[in-house]
Each structure stands twice: as structure tokens, then as C-alpha cells.
Recover the amino acids of this structure.
């Protein structure tokens, strides 16, 4: 625990304390966080966000940032640090094409400033022209956390009021509760037929003691994620914390499993996995260059691969290469030709026949797939989706996601709804919000002299996070100035906390006034907060 340093600041920070590396605006990783463990109902901390890129395949958000028109300040400052497949959403924004944003809130307590990150992300996507959805995950709260329906109703009302007060347009978007949305429940039933207990157990660590309602709440969440695409397939982004990534991985898998056709690439009648296909492609390209006017056959590629390998070399892909060679030998004199393949996943007979008719140019029809030789993969994807939609399928696009950093608790460690001093509720009296900020731990040095000499540790400071995540709003220059003044030794903790406390009190006062305005109009919205028809 560090002390405040309230003495007057020096005239200028030293150059040694203002390196480019220090002038980051993302607030750093949460102090005292645990090892990487993505549990949607457990720990909400990650000690090194970079590990998520390697371990779970989350992509760095800064790579896609230049493609986003007028990005939100949470994106610009690195608070939103990762994504899965966000480019289709960014492309839809640039082209004014349909897209959607959805996120849910489990009403287990008061909404707090950590939840505001998700509120802001939904609202921003709505303002960019997307269809916006805010849902109350009441079935999950009841099944996974055991809350009564009366408790859920009270918290749900508070979440909705804060979302509205922050700028969500209910006329242009949709608010709903899982328990009241029959379309979501019906879709969840269909999705449940594509998942099994072993899979849920592996993803969520369910076991024989897990109740069925908890498992059912998972497929309901999958239906929530895909719900914006029920009327038409469109890019859809789900803003979440990284602990919710298991839900996103499963939702993307289920979206694919619901499709009538899987579109892939191939070189012969047999089916190869991506690694085998890459090896076969290499052989085909090499032989085509050597013999541009000859028909390349599978046996030719097998010989090429066998002759080109060093039998004494240690090859990590040896098993894959052996498998590819075996398939090529078995195919013998069959011509080796690149083609786009439509694999039958769930297609009706009528849809399969319709796809055959719809493919122009040369094609070959097999029992469970169709090969097209004059169709690019993007064109094939569009054709497969259209045939599916014409014959009663969903045509889902894989949902995208963006991931924001967790806010550090005001007392250090993680921000927790069960520890009032660690967070600021959006329902806190402005004076209480002021006091909590003033009492917060900081990244300051032990003395004012050390602060002036060494600079503060903004990357480890919960108070700086308040500026970067909330209090600076759209003003990047202000957020940068706070950071630079801190790490340069010019800004001392006492004055910094006083300024933050005043801004927090003003924010809470304004927010709660807007909540009161919406409370008077809440009955006009198509969402129910009455638990009378549910067991308590």
C-alpha cells in the first residue's frame, strides 16, 4: 500500500521519467491479478493479457484499429486490447452495411463503473449505425448464481436504467430478458442439439454435480449471441471481458455446426485436413511450374513429396506428410486440381439439389460434397449461404468479439461487486463516490521527494485507470497529460485524487439525474420487471 504524496509539484519533470515506453494510456494489467484462467463464472482477472494471444488465439486489437472509422476512446487507448474476427464488423461500418452489437448483463448486484465499459461499447456501435441489443441474463443469474426472481428484477431494472442513461436508444435497439424472449429460448433448444455434455464439461469444467439448468443457461447464452442474426445473417460483435471468451469460442463453433454447408478448398476427391492440404498444395504448385502443360496426377504429387524429403531429418510435420502421401497414392491417377468444395453438414435433400443446380461451370457431385472448379471461395460462401436461407436455414456468420481490460479495484486487486470499497456503483451517492476515490490506493511513491525524482507508477494505479477508462471521456489529450505528469513526477497523488474525486462525483450526479428521467419513462418500454409470474 502506497501513501499519498500531497506536496507541491516541481516545475518540470525530468527527461529520464518520460520515455516513450512509459507514455501508454491503457492502465496496464490489473494489479494482483491471477494467472490466465478464463472462467465465465469465476475469477475476473488476467495477469498478462499478452498470454491470451498465444493461448487462446485472441488477436491484438491495435492491428485492426486503422480499419475502424472514428474509433471509440477505449479502442484508441488500448483498454479494448483484443478481438476475434472484428474485421467484418469494421468493414460493415465503413460500407454502411448491416451489422449488430450485443452484450448481456447478469443482474447479481448493482451496476458499477466496470460494467460501464460494456455499456459504452454497445452504445458506440449503435451510434455507428449498428443494430444494438442489451439483454438481461436472468436465466443465467437464477441458474448459476441462485438469485431469486425478485432480486433479479430489482437489479435488472438498475442495469437497464444505467444503460439508457448512458445513451442507449431503445427505439433504435432492443432490450430484453432471456426468460421473456421465446425466440431466444427456441433457438437455444436448436443449438443444444449440436452440443453435448462432454463438450460443456471440457469447456466449463461441469461435472456430475452441475445442475441441468446451469447447462441450459449456457445454450441460452449461445442463442443470445446469435439472436441478432435470426432475421438475416450479418456481422455481429459481442463486447466482453476476456473471461467470457469460452462462450465466444463455443458460439462460433455452434454457428458453424448449424450451417447447411461447409465451404473449404481441396485438390482431389478425398478430404484432407488444413495441414495435409497445405502440403498437397505445395506439391501441386511445384509440379505445375515444372510441367505447365501436363495434367498433374495424385501419384505424381506423392512421388514428389517422397523424393523431396530427407529420411534422416527430424521433421515435426512428418506424420502429416506421411498421411498426405498415403492419400495421394491411394488416389493414384486421379487428376490433382484445385477446387472449391461444398461439404454437406445439415442440408436437406432439396437444399443439396438446389446447390448443385446453382453452381455454374464445371463441377463434380459426390454423395456428401460438391466440387466446383470455376468458383472462388468467397463466391462459394455467398452461394452456400443464399441456398441455405432459401431452404429454411439460418446462414449464421461466425460472431465476432472484442475484449476490454478489467478495471483494477480501488483498493488494489480485482474490482468486485462483493467488496464495496473496491468499486464505485453507478448508484452510489456522488459524495460516496468522491470519498471512495479519495481513499483509493495509488501508484505513487513513498514520499513526495521520491515521486518528483522517480515519477509515479501510472501503469499500476487504479486512480489513473479512472481517468483512462472513464473520467477523461473523449479527451485523449487530457488522459495523456495525466499520464505524462504522473510518470514525470509533476503530478502528485493528493492533487490527482482530488481532481479524480471531483470528476467522479460530477459524473455520478449527472448519471443519476438521467436515470431518474428514464425511470419516469420505463413503463413505456417493452421490457418487464415484474416477478409475479415466476417462482421466487
Amino acid at each position: 500500500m502506497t501513501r499519498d504524496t500531497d506536496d507541491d509539484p516541481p516545475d518540470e519533470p525530468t527527461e529520464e521519467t518520460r520515455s516513450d515506453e512509459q507514455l501508454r494510456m491503457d492502465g496496464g494489467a490489473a494489479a494482483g491479478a491471477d494467472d490466465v484462467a478464463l472462467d465465465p463464472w469465476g475469477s475476473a482477472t488476467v495477469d498478462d493479457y499478452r498470454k491470451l494471444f498465444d493461448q487462446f488465439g485472441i488477436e491484438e486489437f491495435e492491428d485492426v484499429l486503422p480499419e475502424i472509422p472514428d474509433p471509440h476512446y477505449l479502442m484508441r487507448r488500448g483498454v479494448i486490447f483484443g478481438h476475434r474476427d472484428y474485421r467484418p464488423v469494421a468493414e460493415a461500418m465503413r460500407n454502411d452495411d448491416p451489422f449488430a452489437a450485443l452484450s448481456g448483463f447478469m443482474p447479481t448486484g448493482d451496476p458499477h463503473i466496470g460494467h460501464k465499459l460494456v455499456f459504452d461499447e454497445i452504445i458506440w456501435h449503435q451510434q455507428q449505425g449498428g443494430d444494438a441489443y442489451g439483454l438481461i441474463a436472468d436465466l443465467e443469474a437464477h441458474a448459476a448464481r441462485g438469485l431469486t426472481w425478485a432480486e433479479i428484477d430489482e437489479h435488472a431494472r438498475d442495469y437497464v436504467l444505467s444503460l439508457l442513461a448512458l445513451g442507449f436508444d431503445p427505439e433504435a435497439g432492443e432490450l430484453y430478458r432471456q426468460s421473456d424472449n421465446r425466440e431466444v429460448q427456441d433457438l437455444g433448444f436448436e443449438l443444444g442439439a449440436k452440443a453435448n455434455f462432454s463438450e460443456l464439461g471440457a469447456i466449463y469444467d461441469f461435472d456430475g454435480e452441475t445442475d441441468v439448468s446451469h447447462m441450459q443457461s449456457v445454450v441460452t447464452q449461445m442463442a443470445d449471441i446469435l439472436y441478432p442474426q435470426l432475421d438475416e445473417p450479418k456481422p455481429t460483435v459481442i463486447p466482453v471481458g476476456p473471461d467470457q471468451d469460452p462462450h465466444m469460442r463455443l458460439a462460433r463453433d455452434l454457428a458453424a455446426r448449424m450451417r447447411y454447408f461447409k465451404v473449404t478448398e481441396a485438390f482431389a476427391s478425398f478430404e484432407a485436413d488444413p495441414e495435409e492440404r497445405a502440403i498437397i498444395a505445395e506439391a501441386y504448385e511445384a509440379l505445375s511450374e515444372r510441367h505447365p502443360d501436363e495434367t498433374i496426377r495424385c501419384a505424381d504429387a506423392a512421388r514428389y513429396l517422397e523424393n523431396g524429403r530427407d529420411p534422416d531429418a527430424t521433421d515435426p510435420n512428418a506424420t502429416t506428410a506421411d498421411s498426405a502421401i498415403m492419400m495421394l497414392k491411394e488416389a493414384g491417377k486421379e487428376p490433382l486440381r484445385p477446387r472449391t468444395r461444398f461439404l454437406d453438414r445439415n442440408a436437406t435433400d432439396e437444399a443439396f439439389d438446389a446447390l448443385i443446380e446453382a453452381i455454374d461451370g464445371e463441377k463434380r457431385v459426390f454423395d456428401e460434397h460438391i466440387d466446383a472448379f470455376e468458383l472462388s471461395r468467397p463466391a462459394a460462401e455467398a452461394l452456400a449461404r443464399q441456398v441455405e436461407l432459401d431452404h429454411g436455414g439460418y446462414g449464421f456468420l461466425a460472431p465476432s468479439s472484442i475484449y476490454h481490460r478489467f478495471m483494477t479495484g480501488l483498493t488494489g486487486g480485482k474490482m468486485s461487486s462483493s467488496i464495496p470499497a473496491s468499486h464505485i456503483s453507478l448508484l452510489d451517492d456522488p459524495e460516496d463516490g468522491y470519498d471512495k476515490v479519495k481513499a483509493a490506493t495509488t501508484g505513487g511513491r513513498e514520499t513526495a521527494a521520491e515521486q518528483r525524482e522517480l515519477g509515479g507508477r501510472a501503469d499500476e494505479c487504479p486512480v489513473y485507470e479512472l481517468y483512462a477508462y472513464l473520467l477523461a471521456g473523449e479527451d485523449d489529450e487530457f488522459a495523456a497529460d495525466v499520464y505524462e505528469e504522473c510518470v514525470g513526477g509533476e503530478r502528485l497523488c493528493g492533487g490527482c485524487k482530488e481532481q479524480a474525486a471531483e470528476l467522479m462525483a460530477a459524473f455520478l450526479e449527472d448519471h443519476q439525474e438521467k436515470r431518474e428521467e428514464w425511470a419516469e419513462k420505463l413503463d413505456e418500454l417493452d421490457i418487464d420487471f415484474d416477478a409475479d409470474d415466476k417462482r421466487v
